[in-house]
Amino acid sequence: MGNACWELYCLEHGILPDGTIPAAKAGEQVDSSFETFFCETAAGKHVPRAVFIDLEPTVIDEIRTGTYRLLFHPEQLITGKEDAANNYARGHYTVGKEIIDNVSTRIRKMASRKSSFQRDAVGALRRGKVQSEKEREREI
């Protein structure tokens, strides 16, 4: 679900699956609204402002091997080694505990990249471009 969402964002903003903007579009006046969802690297690549997390690796592996695999930085795709088997205690106290430090660090770094992180989130909300809570839970 999250991968499909980023595919749609790329199509809406003219970003290729590798995170680049085609040369014809690069010289044009670009709508900066996509900066809410993407950040630009020093190499000119646009990377999603998202972290995908799952205790079970197969779903995230689909992103790692899919069409948009070059769009995401590998540090944005965090997986555990096994599923919590729909058991909250197992996910919270054992399996999830193994990756929580990595998850916290990654989210902290993502949020600190842009000083207007909160403003951008509010701007997206005002434009009606915020996912429903269920969609966000699936993405995370």
Automatic annotation (TrEMBL):
InterPro entries: Alpha_tubulin (IPR002452), Tubulin (IPR000217), Tubulin/FtsZ_GTPase_sf (IPR036525), Tubulin_FtsZ_GTPase (IPR003008). GO terms for cellular component: microtubule. It catalyses: GTP + H2O = GDP + phosphate + H(+). This is Tubulin/FtsZ GTPase domain-containing protein. Residues 118-140 are annotated as: Disordered. Residues 130-140 have a biased composition (Basic and acidic residues). It is found in: Cytoplasm, Cytoskeleton. Pfam families: Tubulin. Its cofactor is Mg(2+). The keyword GTP-binding applies. The keyword Hydrolase applies. It comes from Mauremys mutica. Keywords: Cytoplasm, Cytoskeleton, GTP-binding, Hydrolase, Microtubule, Nucleotide-binding. GO terms for biological process: microtubule-based process. Belongs to the tubulin family. Residues 1-118 form the Tubulin/FtsZ GTPase domain.
